[in-house]
Amino acid sequence: MPRNSATPILLDTHVWLWLMEGLEDELGQRASGAILESSRTGKLLVSVISVWEIAMLESKGRIGLSVEIGEWVRRGLRAPGLRLADLTPEIAIESTRLPDWAGGDPADRILVGTARSHGATIATRDRHILDYANRGHVSALETA
User: Fold this and answer.
1) Are 92 and 111 in contact (CB under 8 A)?
2) Contact in structure between 125 and 142 (CB atoms under 8 Å)
């Protein structure tokens, strides 16, 4: 599905991490511009499942953060134009009924369910989600 500039952007967990850690070069010019525009218009979303994923990765030593996890999340949720997308019962149900979904990662299911429920475009580099978008089930913005 193509992205409309008025459509909110949901950041995949890795994209949120890159933004907060100053790794904007990972995004690419097109994605970076779209994310900045969504930030300016208050249409930038991060799912609560991304908070959980970041905390899990940090607790297992798979990622290092520039500050303590609690402070990192507080700062991350205060980013300009960013809103937290809660995990609602509707999103939980949607994530179990994704048409033509073959992936096994529950966090990806919730992210896709969140994007679909909010009518958002998901900014990601995740090949599985991008392939799913190419089949017309969700809108995606590919990062570099």
Assistant:
1) no
2) yes
pLDDT digits (tens, 9 = 90+) for 3-19: 456 799 999 999 999 99
15 close to 124: Cβ distance less than 8 angstroms: yes
Query: Could you tell me if 31 and 143 are in contact, meaning their C-beta atoms sit under 8 angstroms apart?
Result: yes
In whole angstroms, give the CA distance from residue 116 to residue 24.
25
Q: Is residue 144 part of a domain?
A: no
pLDDT for the residue numbered 104: 77
5: CB partners within 8 A, 6+ apart: 34, 37
Inter-residue contact 105 to 53 (CB < 8 Å): no
- Rounded-to-integer distance, Cα 120 and Cα 70, Å: 27
Give me the percent of the chain exceeding a pLDDT of 70. 97
> What's 78's domain CATH number?
3.40.50.1010
Residue 14 lies in a domain: yes
Beta-carbon neighbour count of residue 117 at 10 Å?
Answer: 17
The residue to which tokens 């940090």 are assigned: 58
For the chain, what is the domain count? 1
**Whole-structure pTM value:** 0.94
93 lies in which domain range? 9-138
